[in-house]
């Protein structure tokens, strides 16, 4: 499960198991749904989306937007024609449920740049559902050119740590990206964010959104106490 926050509101994102949803869902802004977190996240199943939606309805009366990752496999972000066709088909299937409020995806070309053609087709397939460009951004050499490309392609937000490594290493680069592009696209800071650094990194980057796996102690699953700590910290940030 991941954690995202906007200003003083906090949202969380599921790894694909409804049992992992925190008991207290007060204040979430949105959830990002994916499967196979150790691989960096891949497309979840339709049944998982439906189960998460039903669980949320049972736990809170307030709508919690769900963003779904579209990624056919772990590894790099250079996809074959067959994989791209699979991604488009998955977008259509998830859209048809009426339960998706956003998609999280990203494609690079063989040169490690934004694949304009493939990303454009996926954004068009998702429309009018908004898209976030995920941390494939962190493998790009020229971040400014990449940000300009995803803005032109119609992405609504970008998840980034500012390059290879975690948010602590790239926070100054993210600050610069926020200053140059933040009026045109939402910049989401992610990568190694936990309760011990979330306030400082959010302040230094100057962003409205942060993203965290909320995994502690070398575990593989969400630490509900860690989620609670971050929620409290972000509410006063």
Automatic annotation (TrEMBL):
Span list, region Disordered: 1-23
InterPro entries noted in UniProt: CutC-like, CutC-like_dom_sf
Name of the protein described by the UniProt record: Copper homeostasis protein cutC homolog
Lineage per the UniProt record: Eukaryota, Fungi, Dikarya, Ascomycota, Pezizomycotina
Family: Belongs to the CutC family.
Database matches in PANTHER family: COPPER HOMEOSTASIS PROTEIN CUTC, COPPER HOMEOSTASIS PROTEIN CUTC HOMOLOG
GO MF annotations, alphabetized: copper ion binding
